[in-house]
From TrEMBL:
The keyword Hydrolase applies. PANTHER family: UBIQUITIN CARBOXYL-TERMINAL HYDROLASE, UBIQUITINYL HYDROLASE 1. GO terms for biological process: cell migration; protein deubiquitination; proteolysis. The keyword Protease applies. The lineage of its organism: Eukaryota, Metazoa, Ecdysozoa, Arthropoda, Hexapoda. This is ubiquitinyl hydrolase 1. It comes from the Eukaryota. It is an enzyme of class 3 (hydrolase). Keywords: Hydrolase, Protease, Thiol protease, Ubl conjugation pathway. Residues 972-1235 form the USP domain. It holds the Pfam family ARM_UBP24_USP9X-Y. PROSITE patterns: USP_3 (PS50235).
Length: 1235
């Protein structure tokens, strides 16, 4: 203890000093931590009361006699040492350590030039456990802003000396303490000592790179906190110091660059709005100054070369090798290149050709490891992509002499990106390429590096080859040559080059090696992309249409001319398509002419002979056996080629040969195995075309059967009751769900044409096809079974099992296979076809419904299938089948009974997450047939299920709730009331207490009985938005005969608040009650102050809420400042002064005149986006304080700060502007209202 303190004695008088001495004596006597915490609390309380008394008396705290007596007493009794050293184990408790804070702060201020007290605190954590050290550092953090310069100097020395080499947590605590201490109001000498301590600390050999980076961050923050951006600033001196360190110490080159980069970043970036003085000391100017004085870029490049040579001399090829004790080889190279990029970009500097070549030689031609190669290519790629372009000569030299010499076999992704950047830059600079908004235009096909792209495609790995293929496509499509013949010749040579490569590498599936197979696959992909890309960009249609649109053909304009002039009929034209039939054209012309005449159609253009079909078919077979990707690419090529004439003739022969084919789907398409030997994708394609043909036939036949007569044809006697009406209604239901608009139009036209033909030839109605249709046997019963099997197999993603047994199909239904787009489309088309087949052959459906496998079929499609999209498609089509089967009540009742049996099955709990579609279908069926006798019975079962359930799956709960709602619509209103009230099912109480609000039930019971309900869950079982919505819908349905309850209405919080305040105002006004809402109201002052004349315009308006913008603001204070910011109206936007009768420059401002006692502020997180055409929500980080003073945003505050406002006298005693935050309302969800 200092002698000055020993001479002092605590004043033992009555009052606080005696009480304090008694507390300090007790502190020495007791050892229990709780008692010691209480004593320290009482001591702190006495200190606080003494300080408060001194502040009220407006006396300097340390000059107050009472404070001095307390400090002397604490020092004399060694209280600080007693608390921190006597019982070290008590320091594990942070609340105990925190009680020392006020005592230590008092002593530090009382003896600001003495380090004894800070030394006691520091020594208490030496050689102690980690937890104790952390608590003591928390204490020192709290005291950091109270330390004097003497304390800080002593502490910084000990922080550096006590640096733990391996304890990272302790290191972070020391650095954080450095940063906190620096926030004191320090003099220049103390700041320099702090910075020097950090600098010396960073030079320790045991410092890790991450910790060194943290040290630099703190050092830069201290410099930025205290100093400005100018050449005389110590911040600039530290930059010079880093440059000198880089030049003198080769082991500290990387740390010097890192610190220089951080220091450069502390300067403001250059902007056009800067003042002249700011521009002199911006980031760009600072870098430019140092570059001109020290030639930083050349220094960094030379450093990289020297470093690489030094590593090579050590015969080290390990990228993790550390030469300077801190950074690995990869980090050494990466940091140099990154700093070089930083100087080029931020300083707007240029790198010379020689320097670029030197970097290339060091890292590409003379690398230490493979990573050098990657880092160098990545750096050069960024050099061009970030706009730091070299001159055209340098780009061309590096591209031709360096990049095009790289081997392509082991090219990596970054290597290709570097090649692409230089390829585009070189050819653009030479005006061979031209960049447009979304594509490239080739002005000269002789592109530099084009052959290199082909080498990449043929020899690189698949990922790089695919990227090169895309680049080749981009520079091969948009060819803009001066002569059209040159353009045609170019494309012709391009196609021949593709097929020359293909044929030179093609071989049989058995003999071809993997290298040739890869070449064939990649060249086929390039060819396919080229043809597809060119076809998309070409405005004119092709003469020989591709197979994908060959059924219709291109649109064309048909010009009609008359060889002999006809009276009152001029020449005319009309639109048609290339594959339109001759009879249709004749009708169009006759309709125009309104008379019959002989006519002849001519078309001068000739068809080009299709080529390469057989070769591409061979490629497809090769791909089918050896390579799936080649198979898919060759199939795309076949779609792009036009159809061979032989193929067209073969198809016509099949469909015109009536005598050798039976008009039934089973015999036409499903007998035998038409997909034998096919892969999965080919099977999907085959069955897709089969379904299209079947649908076309059925829709056409339905269009005829549904007519009142066959145009005079004889109707078969096997017609079902009300058959035509059934067909018409069923087709209306089915076709409303269809998406194939073109097919529907074709079938309508085709059925009309067939009816016309039947007028002239009754024998057509006796054909096999129409006989089966009139007998309601198209498709046959076996055909219906085959369609259902196709649906069954496709639903599991195992179409190959189509010809397997029912047991195999059922066993595969639960497989979690990912279906491709083609399989999903095939599944949906098969379901649509089954819906149509129900109309044309209802007996087939009845037989299948009573088959023993039908329940399995239903459960597999609706319950066991893991794909939600497939289950929903099945539910929608089964609903259509259900509606179409209404005339056949047996089928109707059978399907409904099976569906209800599914939800009662014991296995439904196992598949509860997949029951949504099943319940959806049941609800739709119930709503379709409300006059159902069994609805009451099922309603009782559902009510019992809801009453007895405890914690069901949310999807299962939602389904039962929606099913109960649907069943309620089938019973009478009296029965509905019985179900809801106490005398019936008591369903309303079940919903409120068991399903929706069980916590409310528990709280109500506890409030009335003072006891808790045992074994009761307080969390709602409706834990998803959908289940809650279903519960509320059911509650609404039960209450619909009572007063209407709009429980589903949602309102914005601000809208609700304003509506509530408005309603209360209106009610109070009618009752002539007191103005109790005055506390919620303030007054705005809308002011316009003329600058050129003495006139002022004021308008006051009351408000209940202040709405501020959060966009581009970080906190509430910034938003409020913008809210009251003045707007200058001048020029064309000047204000017209009524008194001056002219436009004058004015200041327009909206500010607050009177503040409410309770203020509501809305943060406007929503804004209408004109580009997106919808309201968007801002989820930006936004801060608001717990306490705020609104004075700066009022007229009084603005006037006080010298702003131009119209002021007025206020009652300062009653003018309160300080508010404390008391509540927050948070909007959860999106702008659309979705939670």
């Amino acid at each position: 203890m200092p002698d000055a303190v020993k001479s002092r004695r605590p004043i033992s008088q009555e009052g606080n000093c005696d009480a304090l001495q008694e507390l300090l004596d007790q502190l020495h006597e007791v050892s229990d931590i709780d008692e010691r915490v209480y004593i320290l609390y009482e001591v702190n309380k006495m200190i606080f009361e003494a300080i408060s008394a001194a502040e009220e008396a407006q006396v300097e705290v340390m000059d107050d006699v009472a404070i001095q007596k307390i400090a002397v007493a604490i020092i004399y009794n060694n209280t600080l040492e007693e608390v921190l050293t006597r019982f070290p184990d008590q320091l594990y408790q942070l609340p105990y350590v925190q009680q020392v804070e006020d005592i230590a702060r008092l002593l530090i201020h009382f003896e600001c030039e003495v380090t004894d007290h800070i030394e006691v605190i520091w020594n208490s954590q030496i050689d102690k456990e980690e937890a104790i050290g952390e608590n003591i550092y928390i204490l020192m953090q709290s005291l950091a802003l109270d330390l004097s310069a003497t304390h800080i100097e002593w502490l910084s020395e000990h922080l550096v000396d006590s640096w733990p080499p391996t304890n990272i947590q302790h290191q972070n605590r020391i650095l954080q303490l450095f940063l906190t201490v620096s926030r004191n109001d320090l003099d220049g000498l103390t700041i320099h000592k702090l910075l020097s301590a950090l600098w010396n600390l960073s030079h320790r050999k045991d410092i890790l790179p991450q910790i060194m980076d943290d040290i630099f961050e703190i050092l830069v923050k201290i410099l930025k906190y205290y100093y400005d951006d100018d050449i005389e600033s110590p911040k600039f001196s530290w930059l010079i110091k880093c440059v000198k360190e880089f030049q003198d110490d080769t082991l500290w080159e990387v740390p010097s660059m890192i610190l220089m980069k951080k220091l450069f970043c502390s300067y403001k970036p250059y902007t056009k709005l800067m003042h002249q003085k700011e521009r002199r000391f911006c980031r760009e100017s600072t870098i430019d100054y140092l570059q001109s004085k020290y030639n930083l870029i050349a220094m960094i490049v030379q450093s990289l070369t020297v470093y690489i040579n030094k590593i090579k001399s050590c015969l080290v090829d390990d990228p993790k090798f550390i030469i300077d004790g801190h950074y690995t080889h990869n980090q050494q190279v990466e940091e140099r290149l990154e700093f070089l990029s930083f100087l080029l970009k931020e300083g707007r500097q240029a790198i010379s050709l020689n320097q670029s070549v030197e970097i290339w030689k060091s890292l590409i031609e003379n690398p230490v490891s493979r990573s050098d190669h990657t880092l160098c290519l990545e750096w050069f790629e960024k050099l061009l992509s970030q706009g730091q372009d070299l001159d055209p000569v340098s780009v061309n030299i590096i591209f031709v002499n360096k990049i095009l010499t790289l081997p392509t076999t082991n090219m990596c992704e970054i290597g290709f990106r570097c090649f692409k950047a230089f390829f585009l830059a070189t050819n653009t600079m030479q005006k061979r390429l031209e960049h447009k908004k979304d594509h490239l235009i080739v002005r000269d096909p002789e592109l530099v590096g084009l052959d290199y792209i082909w080498n990449i495609i043929l020899s690189a790995n698949d990922k790089i080859a695919a990227a090169a293929t895309d680049l080749l496509r981009q520079v091969s499509i948009h060819i803009k040559l001066k002569m059209p013949t040159s353009q045609i010749k170019y494309h012709d040579l391009h196609i021949k080059k593709f097929f020359t490569l293909l044929k030179s590498n093609y071989d049989t599936p058995v003999d071809i090696d993997m290298k040739k197979l890869t070449t064939v696959r990649r060249v086929s992909k390039v060819l396919c992309d080229y043809v597809e890309g060119f076809e998309r960009t070409c405005r004119k249609g092709r003469q020989n249409l591709p197979l994908k649109i060959a059924t219709r053909g291109n649109d064309m304009l048909l010009i009609t001319q008359f060889t002999k002039p006809m009276r009152n009929v001029p020449d005319f034209d009309f639109f048609t398509h290339e594959n339109d039939i001759f009879l249709s054209l004749r009708k169009c012309i006759w309709r125009k002419v309104r008379s019959y005449c002989s006519m002849e159609l001519t078309y001068e253009d000739t068809l080009l002979k299709p080529e390469y079909h057989s070769f591409i078919c061979n490629l497809h077979e090769l791909g089918r056996q050896r390579c799936d990707r080649l198979r898919d690419t060759s199939r795309q090529l076949l779609y792009l080629l036009s159809c061979q004439p032989k193929t067209v003739e073969a198809i016509n022969a099949v469909f015109n040969d009536v005598g050798s084919h039976k008009a039934d789907f089973q015999h036409m398409f499903f007998d035998g195995n038409p997909t034998e030997g096919c892969d999965k994708n080919t099977m999907c394609s085959i069955f897709m075309e089969i379904l299209k043909i079947c649908k076309l036939i059925l829709l056409t036949v339905c269009g005829i059967v549904g007519k009142p007569s066959f145009g005079g044809a004889v109707i078969c006697s096997k017609e079902l009751p009300a058959s035509r009406k059934l067909v018409q209604e069923a087709l209306t239901t089915i076709l409303a769900k269809g998406s194939d608009v073109t097919m529907l139009k074709v079938t309508r036209l085709l059925s009309k044409q067939l009816l016309i033909l039947m007028k002239n030839d009754h024998n057509i109605a006796y054909g096999v096809l129409f006989k089966n249709a009139q007998a309601w046997q198209l498709p046959s019963n076996a055909g219906v079974i085959q369609i259902t099997r196709l649906i069954w197999a496709t639903s599991s993603g195992n179409i190959q099992a189509f010809y397997g047994s029912n047991e195999v199909l059922h066993s595969l239904c639960a497989s979690n296979n990912t279906l491709e787009t083609e399989e999903i489309s095939l599944y949906q088309r098969a379901l649509e076809l089954l819906s149509i087949a129900v109309v044309t052959n209802p007996n087939g459906l009845q037989l299948f419904c009573y088959d023993k496998v039908f329940p399995l079929f239903l459960s597999d499609l609706l319950l066991l299938n893991p794909n939600h999209m497939l289950r929903m498609a099945a539910a929608e089509q089964i609903l259509i089948i259900f509606v179409c089967a209404e005339q056949n009540r047996k089928v109707f009742q059978r399907i409904r009974a099976l569906l209800f049996a599914l939800i009662k099955d014991q296995t439904i709990d196992k598949h509860a997450s997949m029951t949504h579609e099943l319940f959806y279908l049941l609800c739709q069926i119930i709503s379709y047939d409300k006059a159902w006798n069994h609805a009451d019975t099922l309603l009782n079962e559902e009510t019992g299920w809801l009453r007895n359930t405890s914690s069901p799956h949310p999807v299962l709960l939602e389904g039962h709730l929606r099913l109960t709602t649907a069943l309620l619509d089938c019973v009478k209103s009296t029965r509905k009331q019985e179900v809801g009230d106490t005398y019936g099912g008591n369903l309303i109480k079940i919903l409120l207490e068991n399903v929706l609000f069980p916590a409310s039930k528990i709280m109500n019971y506890l409030r009335t009985t003072k006891r808790k309900i045992k074994d009761t869950v307080s969390v709602s079982v409706c834990d998803t938005p959908n289940s809650r919505a279903a519960a509320f819908n059911l509650l609404n349905a039960l209450c619909e005969n009572w007063k209407q309850i709009r429980i589903t209405e949602q309102q914005d919080a601000v809208h609700f608040y304003l509506l509530l305040v408005g309603c209360l105002k209106e009610a109070l006004a009618k009752l002539e009650g007191p103005r109790v809402l005055h506390a919620l109201e303030g007054t705005f002052s809308d002011q316009i102050i003329c600058k050129e004349c003495p006139h002022q315009y004021l308008r006051e308006e009351s408000f209940s809420i202040i709405s501020v913008n959060i966009k581009n603001h970080k906190n509430l204070q910034s938003s409020l400042e913008e809210y009251v910011k003045a707007e200058i109206l001048e020029g064309d936007n000047a204000y017209f002064c009524d008194q001056c009768q002219k436009k004058v420059a004015t200041i327009k401002r909206l500010c607050i005149k009177d503040l409410p006692k309770t203020m509501v502020i809305q943060l406007k997180r929503f804004e209408y986006d004109r580009r997106l055409g919808c309201t968007v929500k801002f989820n930006d980080h936004f801060e608001f304080p717990r306490d705020i003073d609104m004075l700066p945003y009022t007229i009084v505050g603005l006037n006080k700060n010298g702003e131009d406002v119209v002021s007025y006298n206020t009652d300062k005693d009653n003018y309160h502007t300080k508010y404390k935050l008391s509540g927050i309302v948070i909007h959860s969800g999106e702008a659309s209202g979705k939670a």
